């Protein structure tokens, strides 16, 4: 690196010179890693004011429940039961909940050891380096923005259903715009902007609002569950309406249960946003494990009870895949149609809580990405009076509102989920890498070889599951992949020692639990349709372009100015001890 270095953006000539040095700068910065201590000291200091540690474990439980239990469960349950699992969708939810809990363990280990607002971005930055963190962080933020816009538009539909007003009366049609972008939803914009104001004002007050809305939502869910058990019939667990259809509690067998689990797992997305609040938690060592794991367990119980209630209301082959609960009560009798309106109102509260938690999460991701200098530092600023990342919150709030104003729900739904699942996959890999590799002292290649071979085996299993025709050959190939995956894990466990042990909280049964999470996320990625992959490739290419044209040069400038203590993965050694932030109590 040059001994004297000016800003790459000080003039057009400087920028052109910087672009000419892009390959060398990319080679230097892309794999550069940070440390836990850096993330919690000098990197965090770039925000100016600090976020206040005002949240307790019950706040995190509330945020976790609010983030997961949105309106989607009212739809996902119907699809999974009718198409995949039948009444055994209850088991599907239990399996998906267990898998979500295992994935949540990976987030918890990082969040306790490194309680900063960056979530997955920070976790990947201290393991796989700046470029991997930026690529996944950019995709995750786009997923957040797209899904939040979709959720905001769905609020209009559910609220209209609850009060008996057609969606068309809420929206203005502009015929000169193309289909899918011609229905103007002003109410969705107002909802997004109102929540933006709340999260800018105070995280503590945001928690209070979330608690109230989540409590109301759970009351509505409890009402639906009780009505289902009261009005339902237990024979619907085993008898279809049409005798020609498969019967029993497992009408589609074990494959149906696991396909159903893959479908309903998306209902658990939301707990990851809780990890972005780690910097605002009073006692991360105690509060984060309880908050994250507790919310996943509570939501799993709620989902299982909801699916059992729905299975009792109607035989699985009569369930409306798009609106299972509302349609079930509409079909009971004229005297029970009001229940479908109650369900619409409950779903509306769920939409608001999931939107609130997701918008909190996306702002904190953007704030920490700004701290790393790969986007303008303006995004990193924390307001001294509110102790919240106001700049990031307002920018992403306006961006989300603009998309929600024009874009149809179906267009948005085809674009979400893949980025989030990819980040879950990366975090599970990162927690294994961090346990077995101490930067500067441990050879990383055995761990990298293990992670790559296990991922390839999981990809092969997924391709066989989805594309190979049923028969003995398919069962043999799936069994062979399973044996190979288990053998790879056992060999790695026996031959490669852990380089560091978490001081306060760690994922148990390492590396088995993170590997289950890796496999599950690959399996779910294989379940997504073509449009999701087109979106992922497009936004990934866009992220790479931004990194090459701006981020790598801004990061290089920051390194030259001494903003980074660690230039490359091999320069500084990272101790096996936990680098806890001294600003919180243990």
For this entry, what is the oligomeric state of its chains? Answer: single chain
Reading the helices and strands in chain order gives: HHHHHHHHHEEHHHHHHHHHHHHHH
* Class by alpha and beta content: mainly alpha
Give the end-to-end Cα distance, rounded to a whole number of Å: 41 Å
| Share in β-strands | under 5%
Number of strands: 2
GO molecular function, one term: amino acid transmembrane transporter activity
InterPro entries: AA/rel_permease1, CAT_C
Domain Cationic amino acid transporter C-terminal: 505-555
Family: Belongs to the amino acid-polyamine-organocation (APC) superfamily. Cationic amino acid transporter (CAT) (TC 2.A.3.3) family.
Short description:
This protein is an all-alpha fold and 586 residues long.
């Amino acid at each position: 690196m040059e001994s004297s270095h000016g800003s790459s953006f000080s003039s057009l000539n400087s920028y052109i010179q910087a672009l000419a040095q892009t390959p060398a700068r990319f080679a230097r910065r892309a794999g550069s890693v940070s440390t836990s201590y850096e993330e919690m000291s000098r990197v965090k200091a770039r925000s100016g004011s600090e976020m206040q540690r005002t949240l307790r474990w019950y706040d995190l439980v509330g945020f976790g429940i609010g983030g997961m239990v949105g309106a989607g469960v009212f739809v996902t349950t119907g699809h999974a039961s009718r198409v995949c699992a039948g009444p055994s969708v209850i088991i599907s939810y239990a399996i998906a909940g267990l898998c979500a809990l295992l994935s949540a363990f990976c987030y918890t280990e990082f969040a306790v050891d490194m309680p900063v607002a960056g979530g997955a971005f920070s976790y990947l930055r201290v393991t796989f380096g700046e470029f991997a963190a930026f690529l996944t962080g950019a995709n995750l933020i786009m997923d957040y923005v797209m899904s939040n816009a979709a959720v905001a538009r769905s609020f209009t539909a559910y609220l209209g259903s609850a009060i008996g007003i057609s969606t068309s009366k809420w929206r203005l049609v502009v015929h000169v715009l193309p289909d899918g972008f011609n229905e103007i939803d002003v109410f969705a914009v107002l909802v997004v902007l109102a929540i933006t104001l709340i999260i800018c004002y105070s995280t503590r007050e945001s928690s209070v609002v979330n608690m109230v809305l989540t409590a109301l939502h759970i009351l509505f869910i409890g009402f639906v569950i009780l009505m289902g058990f009261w009005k339902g019939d237990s024979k619907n667990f085993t008898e279809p309406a049409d005798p020609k259809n498969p019967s029993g509690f497992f009408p589609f067998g074990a494959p149906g249960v696991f396909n159903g689990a893959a479908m309903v797992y998306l209902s658990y997305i939301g707990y990851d946003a809780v990890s972005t609040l780690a910097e605002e938690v009073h006692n991360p060592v105690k509060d984060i494990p309880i908050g994250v794991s507790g919310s996943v367990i509570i939501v799993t119980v709620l989902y299982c009870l909801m699916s059992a209630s729905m299975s009792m209301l109607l035989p699985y082959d009569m369930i409306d895949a798009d609106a299972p609960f509302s349609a079930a009560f509409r079909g009971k009798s004229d005297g029970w149609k009001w229940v479908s309106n109650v369900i619409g109102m409950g779903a509306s509260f769920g939409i608001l809580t999931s939107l609130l938690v997701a918008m909190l999460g996306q702002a904190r991701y953007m704030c920490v990405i700004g701290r790393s200098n790969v986007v303008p530092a303006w995004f990193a600023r924390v307001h001294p009076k509110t102790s919240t990342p106001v700049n990031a919150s307002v920018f992403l709030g306006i961006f989300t509102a603009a998309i929600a104003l024009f874009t149809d729900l179906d267009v948005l739904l085809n674009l979400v989920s893949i980025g989030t699942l990819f980040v879950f996959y990366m975090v599970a890999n990162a927690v294994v890498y961090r346990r077995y590799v101490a930067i500067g002292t441990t050879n990383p290649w055995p761990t990298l070889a293990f992670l790559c071979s296990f991922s390839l085996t999981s990809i092969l299993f997924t391709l066989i599951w989805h594309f190979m025709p049923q028969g003995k050959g398919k069962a043999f190939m799936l069994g062979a992949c399973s044996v190979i995956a288990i053998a790879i894990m056992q060999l790695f466990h026996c031959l490669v020692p852990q380089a560091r042990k978490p001081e306060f909280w760690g994922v148990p049964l390492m590396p088995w639990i993170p590997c289950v999470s890796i496999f599950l996320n690959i399996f779910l990625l294989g379940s997504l349709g073509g449009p999701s992959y087109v979106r992922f490739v497009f936004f990934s290419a866009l992220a790479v372009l931004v990194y090459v044209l701006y981020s790598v040069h801004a990061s290089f400038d920051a390194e030259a100015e001494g903003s980074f203590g660690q230039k490359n993965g091999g320069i500084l050694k990272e101790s096996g001890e936990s680098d806890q932030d001294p600003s919180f109590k243990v």
